[in-house]
Specification:
3-stranded mixed beta sheet; alpha+beta; 10 strands; 22% strand; globular; 6 helices; 27% helix; 226 residues
């Protein structure tokens, strides 16, 4: 995918850094910011990646601006990749796959049969107020940031949106990232599986790990310590 621009907003904490997807010294010094847009024209795919946290009280305005852009761009469908705290799972969720999905009513009509063929599990509703026995049930995505707001607003505005998420824990989330994108690929078939793979632990799909992930936990311990 190639970078085609950025999403200008004052709702995110300002951030600038080197190219996280550098493949050589020549492009390693390219600058990246907090919200960038990538494109894969051959698959009619556009990706918005967020790299910064929200300024206080700015998450709602951001959702409104993002959905306004989605509608003005006439996107066929929107897919949100997200996560939720694994320690909030109930007993049923603990005994099943860590992946879940949600579809807005306007998208459900066109893709429901595809999703059923995949045997995916829809995100379960839970009590809106856990401490009250007769509380109404609603969708809860603890730790999911703006995911629920985007979903609720898309339902109200009839925007065709799917939410794909995984229950995750704090720590090294690289395996979770690969798992979530493979979950997405089951549906969209963005890339085809490898025909052969010598490493049984390797992914069946030829994903490329960003070069910046090598320094996820820093550059290692200084030799002078030993």
């Amino acid at each position: 995918m190639c970078k085609i621009g950025y999403f200008y907003t004052d709702c995110l904490v300002p951030m600038v850094g080197n190219n996280p997807y550098a493949t050589s010294e020549e492009n390693s010094t390219e600058l990246s910011i907090n919200a960038e847009v990538y494109s894969l024209p051959s698959r009619k795919l556009v990706v918005l990646q967020l790299r910064s946290i929200f300024i206080k009280y700015k998450s709602k305005p951001f959702c409104e601006k993002l959905l306004s852009w989605v509608k003005s761009s006439n996107c066929a469908k929107v897919i949100v990749l997200s996560s939720s705290h694994s320690y909030h799972r109930n007993d049923l969720q603990l005994c099943s796959t860590p992946f879940r999905y949600l579809l807005t009513p306007s998208l459900q009509k066109s893709v429901q049969n595809q999703i059923k063929c995949l045997n995916w599990e829809e995100m379960e509703k839970s009590p809106c107020i856990p401490e009250i026995d007769d509380s109404e049930f609603c969708i809860q995505i603890p730790g999911g940031g703006i995911t629920k707001t985007l979903y609720d607003e898309s339902c109200s505005e009839e925007i065709p949106m799917a939410v794909l998420l995984k229950f995750v824990s704090e720590g090294d989330n690289i395996p979770d990232a690969f798992g979530l994108v493979e979950y997405l690929n089951e549906w969209l078939q963005i890339i085809k599986p490898r025909l052969q793979c010598d490493d049984p632990k390797a992914s069946a799909l030829p994903w490329k790990m960003p070069s910046s992930w090598r320094l996820l936990f820093g550059s290692g311990l200084p030799p002078a310590l030993f």
